[in-house]
Amino acid sequence: MRMKKLTTSIKKSFRKLKYLDKTQASYFVVTSFLAAFLMFTGATYSYFTITNKIGNATIAIARIKYNLSSPLSNFNEGRITVSSGSTLYIDLNLESLNSMETKYALQYITDNPNIKVYYSADLANNMAGIIGPKGSIIKMCVVIVNEGATDGEVDLTVQGGYLQNTLETNITEGHFDQDIIVRSIILDDNMKDGVINQEFPTKESGYSYFRTSCNDDVTASWNSEAWNLEISNIGSRVACDVYFKKMTSDIEVYFALKKKDGSVSYENSLPTDSTYTFKNAECNTGATASWDEVNKRLNITGMEAKTACIGYFEEN
Predict the structure, then answer these.
(1) Among 124, 104, 106, 109, which Cα is nearest to 166's?
(2) How far apart, in Å, are the Cα atoms of 270 and each of 22, 75, 237, 245, 252?
(3) Cα 108 from Cα 117, distance rounded (Å)
(4) pLDDT tens, residue by residue, 112-140
């Protein structure tokens, strides 16, 4: 009935339009356009809001879609119930349903003040980052701790955006089952996607040590003879990622470019517009690398077979 009245009113308004002077007519047209635009925008926003969770774990943000799944039986549309006084480990698979790379950020919501959600330090802090196009999967693990006397619920969801967007996760603390955690990450050829393992690949596997990243300000060095990581100056719980990659040539040179926002990308070449300043360089063997500012290149001495060197640069 209400819609019928609205339609009748609109028809009457259009019939009156021919009797208006030009100023009134222009005003009427502009006002009608704005009203139609606002109605469309409101309907579109409602659609995005309603379809934020579809099915078991399909999440849509505007035109960006993901599938968040878990082998846990009581994981239902991102919602999980945690018993009082318990700690629950949840393995998650985040799958991209998009045609391009996008940014993602896993977030949680709970109304129980005694519940806290951590990322598992055994797996790594990948609660936010970049996911590849359709079919790409990121494996995550969260640890939910309920220290209260009553059961509680947690909603896990994903925020998504294009590469120029800034996304943040509220899962920022790691859950440590051990004081020192060392993981190996096997890089693919483009050094963007890595397979996380708890064991180092063997010397005979064809993979070479590439670099190490730790969550704390510790001293970490790779012993290529003993084939292990040596850590010192440990002041707190620490997690280190040791990266390995398959060498495609005997000597490989890479450039680690640290942007102003703190993100780092590993490239095969350095921008020629002097937007980055050299900081230091290191090699995975006993080789020594130094920066030649005049010729804009790394000079390497003491090279051995399967030597990879990285030059570290920061954006000006």
Answers:
(1) 104
(2) 62, 46, 35, 20, 14
(3) 7
(4) 999 999 998 887 789 999 999 998 999 89
Can you read off the two tokens belonging to residue 90? 């949840």
Virtual CA dihedral for 12, 16, 18, 19, nearest 10 degrees?
Answer: 170
Residue 299 reports pLDDT greater than 90: yes
- Kindly report the CA angle at 72 between 139 and 155, in degrees rounded to 5? 80
Complete DSSP assignment for 150-207: S-EEEEEEEEEE-TTS----S---EE-SSSEEEEEEEE-TTSS-EEEESSPPPGGGSE
Q: What angle do CA 204, 205, 210 make, to 5 degrees?
A: 105
pLDDT in tens, 6-27: 455 545 554 544 544 554 555 4
Q: What is the pTM of this model?
A: 0.58
Contact 119, 177 (CB under 8 A): no
**Residue range 59-86, pLDDT digits in tens:** 777 789 999 999 988 899 899 999 999 9
The residue type at 104: Y
- pLDDT greater than 90 at residue 218: no
User: Which three-class secondary structure state does DSSP give residue 311?
Assistant: strand
Helix (H, G, I), strand (E, B) or coil at 30: helix
The C-alpha atoms of residue 241 and residue 141 are separated, in whole angstroms, by: 16
Give the pair of three-digit tokens for residue 161.
């955006």
Burial 102-136 (b: 16+ CB within 10 A, else e): bbbbbbbebebeebbbbbbbbbbbbbbeebeeeeb
pLDDT at 6: 46
241-273, pLDDT tens digit by residue? 899 988 888 888 999 998 887 778 888 888 877
pLDDT at 235 over 50: yes
Q: Hey, is 24 helix, strand or coil? A: helix
Backbone angles phi, psi at 201, to 5 degrees: -65, 150
Inter-residue contact 185 to 213 (CB < 8 Å): no
